[in-house]
Specification:
This protein has about 190 residues and is mostly helical. It is built from seven helices and no strands.
């Protein structure tokens, strides 16, 4: 049995305990509520006028940054990312696990498939929010002595989040494209109505 398979089996045994599952679900609900609130706050701040005459963003701040938004610490981000991640083992096993979970949802019916893809979309959106938080950390002031450590940690966290977000974006585009092929086919082949 490979290390990833042992880890997956141990995680499933651990999560099968009712107390653990309840605790983890409560933590996940609280985490998602915080992320939704932060996302809503970010959307509200970007939809409101900035008040600058040039209409552009400041050179010292990234586009879409929020001056009064408190930047999270690296420790907080490590914790949030650890809670956000799906524990599907190494990246090369994600495809297999995704297909197994999709097949399980298909066996339960179309409502389960829709729920599965909704969860994947929410996971991707939450991951994009985490990437925005990491961007805020990257633009925040840093002690020169800690700059190297900050860069290394940012790189590690970005690679973890970005690979998982990208995987789910590709899968969502593959299985649930934004523009269904049924709509593009009549446009693509110039069929008459």
């Amino acid at each position: 049995m490979h290390r990833g398979q042992r880890q997956h089996a141990a995680t499933q045994r651990w999560m099968s305990k009712p107390v653990v599952r309840t605790t983890q679900n409560e933590k996940a609900r609280a985490r998602m509520a915080r992320l939704r609130a932060a996302r809503k706050e970010t959307q509200l701040s970007t939809s409101q006028p900035t008040g600058s005459d040039d209409g552009g963003s400041s050179a010292s701040q990234p586009a879409g940054s929020d001056d009064d938004h408190e930047v999270k610490s690296m420790a907080e981000m490590c914790l949030l990312i650890g809670q956000w991640q799906y524990c599907w083992g190494p990246n090369n096993l994600w495809e297999k696990t995704f297909n197994e979970k999709l097949q399980s949802a298909q066996d339960r019916g179309s409502g389960s498939v829709n729920n599965f893809f909704s969860q994947c979309e929410a996971h991707t959106t939450d991951g994009q929010q985490l990437l925005n938080e990491l961007k805020r950390i990257a633009y925040s002031p840093c002690n020169r002595r800690l700059a190297r450590d900050k860069c290394i940690q940012l790189h590690d966290l970005l690679s973890v989040v970005l690979s998982e977000v990208r995987f789910f974006e590709v899968k969502l585009d593959e299985y649930a494209p934004a523009v269904p092929l049924s709509r593009t086919s009549s446009t693509r082949y110039y069929e008459q109505a």
